[in-house]
Amino acid sequence: MTKRRVGVLVMSYGTPESLDQVEAYYTHIRRGHPPTPEQLHELTARYEAIVGGFFPLRENTNKQVKGLEDTLRAEHPEVEFVCYQGLKHAQPYVEDGVEQMVKDGITEAVGVVLAPHYSTMSVGGYVKRAKDKAEELGLKMSFVLDYHLHAKLIDALSSRVEKALTKFPDAERNDIRVIFTAHSLPEKILEMKDPYPDQLLATSKAIAERVQLTNWQFGWQSAGQTAMPWLGPDILDVLKQIHKEEGVKNVLLCPIGFVSDHLEVLYDIDIEAQALAKELGLHLERTESLNTDPLYMQTLSDVVYTKWQEESKQS
């Protein structure tokens, strides 16, 4: 009996693969408007600051896509799952991934984004692009919208918090402020009743309960440089405030909005926030990124398989 072949479009933000691609990447983010020389220099300098311009995000994403395919095939050998990449701002674009599935003879597919929390501005944008292309090409496709409270995801994140807490001296263990973070979005999502902030808080609370944290809060990071206001407070302002007003000396950052090591983790936290912490005299640590953690791969495998099963029953 021939196995059913099911395509899985794994979507993420994308990143340039080398320094000479930074300008084209940034131009795409800016909807075709090239960056000024100053903006280009600033972004390139950030990549260069990360181990001399090594680009970990693309490699991490490639490994995550492969890890998900391997996990799906191991857990559900009766189905031939085939994973494809679809990136927002770099090749292969979301539409390229959908097109490749159709070229390969895939007739049914599931889309999932490497971001556990739903926002119309992030996950919603990926889904719309993939859906439009799938409809144009006649591909039957369904989508996982979020998985922010999946038990295995909470397990993976909680174990990272527990492990990172051991980086502080035992005598100071009760005086560590844990701050959960995620990528800021424009404030206008609040008017849209977007679920993003609430889902992030729900994940934070679930981890805090599991690890029995009482001393924790939430902060935003990596806001865009635009005229419109973004969600705050920014993590750098939070560090200054808790140090000055509350005398906090130990901080653990847990970037739950990011699933792999990339610019927002390796630069915005490991370099920028760490430099501020040093200036303030804070002991700052962060939790390890999920990357290809088996529990994260199993989370993605579960939500993809469940979505495919739901669609199969309806058809």
Please give a structural write-up.
The chain is of the alpha/beta class and 315 residues long. The protein has two domains: 4-147 and 292-314, Rossmann fold, CATH 3.40.50.1400; 151-286, Rossmann fold. The chain has helices at 22-29, 37-49, 56-75, 94-103, 123-137, 151-165, 196-211, 235-246, 263-266, 268-280, 294-314; strands at 4-12, 79-87, 108-113, 140-143, 176-183, 216-221, 250-254, 283-286. It has a four-stranded parallel beta sheet, with helices on both faces. It has a four-stranded parallel beta sheet with strand order 6-5-7-8, with helices on both faces. Strand 3 (108-113), helix 5 and strand 4 (140-143) form a beta-alpha-beta unit. Helix 3 (56-75) packs across helix 11, helix 4 (94-103) runs parallel beside helix 5 and helix 6 packs across helix 7 (196-211). The longest helix has 21 residues, at 294-314. The chain starts with a strand and ends with a helix. Pathway: Porphyrin-containing compound metabolism; protoheme biosynthesis. Keywords: Cytoplasm, Heme biosynthesis, Iron, Lyase, Metal-binding, Porphyrin biosynthesis. It comes from Paenibacillus violae.
